[in-house]
């Protein structure tokens, strides 16, 4: 009793003492040895002793004789205390603790068993493997699983023959544990038994685990085993197969992939062309050229990406021929290729595309000509200055050419009635070194539109190092429709200032729709969600016809959703509302776990991003517009929503740039959500919620079916 009182008194004061006094206290506790241990843990639970001080005490008192007492404390309910004890055993006892730990490997308490497994795996000692063998034969499944898991963590070639017998277990969970353990070993000698199992395995989670392992440790030998899984019905399994083949397939597998490109199932062709893209071998060029003419937009896009990576020689010449293909989708892919690969011999063919009936082809022809840096292309490009659908692309192309011959045209474009054209021109002109550039930018700094004016002021500061500000009364009035160009070198009879576009008409630089889906309980296409693949396919089925009706330039897959670019804000909004309607009707017909819940957002204009790759701007839109508009980011403002009023799913949000395009149309009901700081856009952006004018709110007892 007297000893207990003394021990408790030391512990009560320990965390309040200075370093010297703590050292003295440690020596006093060491005198009591094992007797003090129960009181130490009691003090930790009562928070009389800080964890850091508890670590000091337990490290000082540790001995072989009290290791069992430390191991018993591994069943401590508090994670922080349990973790601290594990750390002390590992650092102080080390490998000397292995015999005692193995004796407790089959302990009845789950927490002790798990902590022992963690400690043994952290020690990663080959001598542990023979000691594990008896537990592999345990009739208690939990102990057997722990032994299998430990083998996988320790690794080494010795573990392979101990794990492979479990591949024949009827219990698929045991099989999966064995597969995961063998995959963790990360040794090429584990590949043959995994390939044998893969050939006959039916459980999706096990198949996914093996394919993931092949992607990490695989070599060319696994390709024949994986190729059949490009035809699998499960979307996730097909993607895992693509990832594994992308890391292991080589030029000699191209014939097998060519056969798969003849499959009628578009998903098989998609997988095969993705692998061809990853191989990046010139021998794949002929196959990829055929893929550019595929009926599926995804296959065409990936093929174009791949061809741009291996460009040169015959590939360039074959793509030039495709610029005159009768199918507009093929022409789109071909002209996109020359936006990534500057090929001067394509010049004449690109000029002809300026008169193409497809506006997207005309736009991309302009930007491709800019990349060729040919001043003689300027008059041809300027022929399209009154083409409302694509005129915004002209300034950037002229800026790419970097010729003084482009300057008078760019200065005149600074007076265009279209705001997007003026901003695009400012960005194009800032890289030109000419005395006439600065006065032109200064004049644009007086623009009636604050975004245009602020862009001009920022460019002035960047070019001159000086800060400019607008004086009161100097704001320029809005451009007058039909005003003449009046810039040197321009034909006076031509008209460059186009009339203001009616709301929702004409082309925006980008009208980006970002869409993703959330399953029940917030699952977003995770492998733990067995219905994710089915919902993803249903979403694709809804999206395809609507994207065609509303003239999407393209729809690109992005994780559990899509990114789409449309020619007008109105089309983008109508597409999004139709998607919400289709999904709402779908949800009324299926079980809860198969329901989809969408988040959609639309932004007009280019989102700034420093990533530098061709998709970075659209990917930035997904990240900053869709994911950034969350309750946590809401800055409440007058007329907006409270955070608890803001819908998280089954919603359509638009940025202010889109709102300005559709606010006068009358087809939609629009309400302010609030202000947000979104990466890649303005510092603070107003965001609005949109629904169809005629839509009646759904009142349902099931909150997953409610739409805003």
Helix content bin: 40-55%
Strand order of the largest sheet: 2-3-1-4-5-7-6
* Residue share in β-strands: 5-15%
* Ends apart, CA distance between termini: 69 Å
Helix tally equals 34
> Shape, please?
globular
What do you see in this structure?
51% of the residues lie in helices and 7% in strands. The chain contains 34 helices and seven strands. The longest helix is centred in the last third of the chain and has 19 residues, at 569-587. It starts with a helix and ends in a 16-residue tail after the last strand.
Which helices and strands, and how do they pair?
Layout: H1 2-14, H2 19-32, H3 37-45, H4 51-61, H5 67-72, H6 79-93, H7 98-103, H8 110-123, H9 128-136, H10 141-154, H11 160-163, H12 172-185, H13 191-200, H14 204-217, H15 223-226, H16 235-248, H17 254-260, H18 266-279, H19 285-291, H20 297-309, H21 313-322, H22 328-340, H23 347-352, H24 359-371, H25 378-382, H26 393-401, H27 407-413, H28 419-429, H29 437-444, H30 450-464, E1 511-518, H31 532-549, E2 552-558, E3 561-566, H32 569-587, E4 597-604, H33 616-626, E5 651-655, H34 656-662, E6 668-676, E7 685-692
Parallel strand pairs: 4-5
Antiparallel strand pairs: 1-3, 1-4, 2-3, 5-7, 6-7
Helix pairs in contact: 1-2, 2-4, 3-4, 4-6, 6-8, 8-10, 9-10, 10-12, 12-14, 13-14, 14-16, 16-18, 17-18, 18-20, 19-20, 20-22, 22-24, 24-26, 26-28, 27-28, 28-30, 29-30, 31-32
Short overview:
The chain is of the alpha+beta class and 708 residues long. The chain is 51% helix and 7% strand.
